[in-house]
Amino acid sequence: MAQPRPLPGPAAPRLRAWQVAALRAYDAEPRRDFLVTATPGAGKTTFALTLAGRLLERRAVDRVIVVCPTDHLRTQWADAAARLGIGLDGALSNATGPVRPDLTGYVTTYAQVAAKAALHAARATSRRTLVILDEVHHAGDGLSWGEAVAAAFDRAARRVCLTGTPFRTRADERIPFVRYEQDGDGGYRSSADFGYGYRDALRDGVVRPVVFAAYTGTSRWRNSAGEVIAASLSQSATKRTETTAWRTALNPRGRWVPHVLAAMDERITALRAAGIHDAGGLVLAGDQQDARAYATIAEHVTGEPPVVIVSDDPLAGRRIEQFASGTQRLAVCVRMVSEGVDIPRAICLAWMTAYRTPLFFAQGVGRVVRARGRAETATVFLPAVRPLLALAAEIEQERNHVIPPPAAGDGLLDVERPEPVPGDRDPIEALDADAAFAHVLHGGRAVVAAPAALSAQDEDFLGLPGILTAEQTAALLARRDTHARQRASVVAATVPSAQGTAWRAGATLRRDLSRLVAVLAAREGTPHAQVHARLRRAVPGPASAAASADILERRRDALLSWIG
């Protein structure tokens, strides 16, 4: 039977310098396994497909299989391959037997490989096959996935692994086909055969500079003992308090979320007024419930409904494509656009999730740094908590190695960017959280507003590298913060919420319980915690912070009967 050949297509794309260097590195020392670590937005897909085309032309391989994280990325890979004249089936299922004879290969997902590893092993060994493992760290999302990838592709002729940033793995969960080095902390860090970091990409103009704007605020919550606690996001004494304050700030019923969304909306408005007419923003939520709640808030902030992208929506892929090519201001998503998805017009990001791993942070920020050949700077709005500030500082320092911001006072204004933590799962009742601009990152330090005033003309240059000092950028964001706070207050007062009435009723009942517990404890000389424990035995159910209004009413009645 005749061998499938690449489909007729356009000439090979113009390659970036790093892609040429990576191809030369591959050719210089041919090997079965090759790991490329390239910053998000650098063009890993183009590199891998160009390599595949060359190996097909040389008859070193006869088939190409791409494994990626999601169904949407399957379509993206198949479309990109078609543009290079390589025919890959982007919809081949596990229920289908052989690969179509008129195509060179197919694109699948890690989940599909895990479901039928033997089927993919048969496809990968029936012909000399190049396997491309996109975002290969996903093979470590569960031991079964890693075992399935090893079983399916252990006998493949060649394998190329791709990832957006180096990743760490425990000793007992090493990902197949990846070379590791010990990281000194008892774990292992991936070792790439070719690396291309954010600093390199920024120097080459492949990605945008990014400015990190951190927002603090005071969070208030009630703990399981009925005590009301208030803490600052940026000045929490312990990790547990910081984590709980962070969770409370992200609660859609507080004022922190609408405040930060209003600040991002103003940034998008300024970018559009400056000529970037399709500038848009992404809101990363922790779960689907929060995503939908944030979408309601965003609609009240911006005046238009955002695109909501969640994994259980069968139209999620289409929504991503529509947002990428459209003009909507915002898209709210959970993890659907955390990696691999190409949305060049997304230039702002609101980090409204408790995910804090270096890999996820790099992938998330990577969605807004893809350059389009113009002077654009991405802005990331994030909670002023230590885990995120540390991750942002690493990226920011790389930026400043390439584009050092001017020193303060140099006169340029005259010229016309989840790990388990204690407290993560503590039962609490989020009461409220306000927000306030804290600082921008510069040189690994927090820079607050400079006293010097900024003109309207200066404002147009916010975030353009080399125009404003870090202090002046902070001054501009601080001045805009007053308006954002006013908008947030209006939104918090007007957003309809089916849960709002129940939440307020619950808050009233919990206050009553706290007062009655104090009365009974004082009368009996008993600690509050013991009274709460006795109350839960009398009226079983979750802790008061998580209990329903019905249980709270019954507990209140019990306390009243005890007090007499």
Describe the 3D structure.
Helix content is 41%, strand content 18%. A hairpin with a 2-residue loop joins strand 20 and strand 21 (445-447). Strands 15-16-14-17-18-11-20-21 form an eight-stranded mixed sheet, with helices on both faces. It has a seven-stranded parallel sheet with strand order 3-4-2-5-6-1-10. A three-stranded antiparallel sheet has the order 7-9-8, with no helix packed on it. With 564 residues, the protein is α/β, with parallel strands linked by helices. It is built from 18 helices and 21 strands. It has three domains: 17-196, P-loop containing nucleotide triphosphate hydrolases (Rossmann fold, 3-Layer(aba) Sandwich); 201-494, P-loop containing nucleotide triphosphate hydrolases (Rossmann fold), CATH 3.40.50.300; 500-563, no CATH class. The model is unreliable at 5-10, 403-422, 457-467 and 497-504 (pLDDT under 50).
